[in-house]
Amino acid sequence: MTLLEKALSAYQEHYASLSALAVSITGNVQDAEDVMQAVLLRFLEYPERITSARNLRSLLQIAVRNQAIDLLRKRGRSIPTEQEVLAQCVSPCATCELEEMLSALALRKHLAELPAPLREAFLQHVLYGARIKDIARELGIAPNTVTQQFRRIKARLRAVLAEEASHF
Length: 168
Fold this sequence. Notes:
The protein has 168 residues and is mostly helical.
């Protein structure tokens, strides 16, 4: 496994905590997603910056923090203080954004646990309306099998969302 592959694996493994860090600095989910994408792109464009695999999590945290601060500076916003972050978390809008982000992270985590071909096929079906018959042909399995697997995935995702909602 190359150093870049180890860094990408660490990125995926710590995505939830890194996203939470980005949200705490930027103050909203959309900016945090921009930060996370920029960090990933930076690693892909400049893999030589990853000098060792000793502590990739720390490297990622520093990269997310720096990217979030750069984003705020470019937009002319100041870095929120701890009190401002806490006050924002009390507001209903921030709570809704946080709930949305946590639900999305839970969904992403459970989708990531699926085998890659099945995950991609499921997303193609749900997001882009790909037909079951075409997916079955591509995967080399019966359409009824694909339908049954998709039902199981949907049931599991519903359970995950219900569990996340019960925490709030």
